[in-house]
UniProtKB/TrEMBL annotation:
Class in the EC hierarchy, top level: ligase
GO molecular-function term, one example from the UniProt record: ATP binding
Name of the protein in its database record: Glutamate--cysteine ligase, chloroplastic
InterPro entries per the UniProt record, alphabetical: GCL_bact_plant, GCS2, Gln_synth/guanido_kin_cat_dom, Glut_cys_lig_pln_type
Subunit text: Homodimer or monomer when oxidized or reduced, respectively.
Keyword Transit peptide: yes
Chief location category: plastid
Organism: Acer negundo
Location within or outside the cell: Plastid, Chloroplast
Amino acid sequence: MRGADGGPWRRLCALPTFWVGILYDEVSLQNVLDIMADWTAKERQMSRNKVPKTGLKPFRDGLLGHVAQDVLKLAKDGPERRGYKESGFVNVVAEAVRKGVVNMALVSQAGLTGTTNGHHRVFGLTYNIEVAVSFSSSSYHSTKKSRRGYRSIVAASPPTEAAVIATEPLTKEDLVGYLAAGCKPKEKWRIGTEHEKFGFEFGTLRPMKYEQIAELLHSIAERFDWEKVIEDDKIIGLKQGKQNISLEPGGQFELSGAPVETLHQTCAELNSHLQQVKAFTEEMGIGFLGIGFHPKWGINEIPVMPKGRYEIVTNYMPKVGTFGIDMMYRTCSVQVNLDFSSEADMIKKFRASLALQPIATALFANSPFTEGKPNGYLSMRSQIWTDTDNNRTGMLPFVFDDSFGFEQYVDYALDVPMYFIYRKKKYIDCSGMSFREFMAGKLPHLPGELPTLNDWELHLGTIYPEVRLKRYLEMRGADAGSWGSLCALPAFWVGLFYDEVALQNVVDMTADWTLEEKLMLRNKVTKTALKRHSEMDGLERRGFKESGFLNAVEEVARTGVTPAEKLLEMYHGEWTQSVDPVFQHILY
């Protein structure tokens, strides 16, 4: 799920909580499907396109606001049925839903409010920081400074850029089978959360240079025993177990978390990562910002990371859309990856998550500034996706066709233009050619050569719809935000989709939404955002005591006030029309 802007530390848990609450609870997932069953394609697209500019505002006391509150309750119920006590992570955004305004002050209040004997109070839950760090170390590697040095991986960023392994020529059935291999029984469902953040210099507020980012990566690797990822003798990321730290084109610092069982583990992992980063930031004079679109600097002030794939995509983007370069270099998001048990379960969750993606965008809207001024949107990051590259983005109306399944998604992906392939530790520009042509041996750069499953996996990672299918579903609709929102987003989706009751409620809720209505919601939320709560019930039925993670978003749903609107209020008030205070206000 890739639709959320970056944001402050305290909102980072809200996004995975949001999606976990919906997708990992059968009841919540079915409820979502019911909610949007009669939405038309036009309505889905409308909701997606409007959210970046208006957030929740035009829907106060209307369709979107009521749906958001219902969906949040579904997301909270799911984790409770899981039994992991995760639903509180969504609380960071709940106030915004209620008021229709993004309230970053509430985010701060809902976050870390003090310590007692090493314990922090987060979203009404007592959270032991030492336990969080020890979870990360026990699950992956020791967090003590390594005395045996570090290992380097001479390749591009894992996992999709691994060296190509020769296989037999692929068939379409192989590609379908690759996706179908993601089906797994419920007891093996996991939660994966990814979040991006902007680095900046304290003194100048300018973006971190690559040299500073490289120093930080080396420092983390050597003190906390991460493996270094090297491309052309330059460090471009880190790997530890199933966790990865990577660099987006403009230096956005991304953690791709390991698949974990509960939202408590998600937040422990996120907290451990941020603590490791913060171990070096003060002495280096740098900080990290949780927001969906860079608030101050123009595209020419953003550094370019030394990764071969980014040069190819940078050259291609202006040919296919208006905002592709901005998307690459000036946006940050939070994404949630969730599992499915079968093709039928994938279809149900895919449809429900597409229908509700505008709700997630509105709840987490957090990108109202561009180059020092309000940009007219509450989620500029989401708006940018409306004109980036329409061949590989959008609401995917065909997912709602009766014939949809793994094969239909393969047909779609086969015709999405490629960016590149990876051979001999180098990227080869194949921009504009389709994977279908590659399978026919028609790539001009490699005439007669046929693809492998590694090539297919790499290609799937270059497709950017609102919800992306790999061997799991990736929710992509939320801006980056505070620490709390990082747990709230997976709590939202897990509560809705990992609980049968919540999922059925979603299905029922959306059963009569037309495609036109779904598109309408998507289009409006970028500007108006939200103007109840199946996911909370789903989290409660999970039995993991996870519903508290939804506290970050519950107030957003209740009030309709999004984080972006609170930032705008401070901009026009106490900040005297300056965006500089935002760097301190939503600093991790």
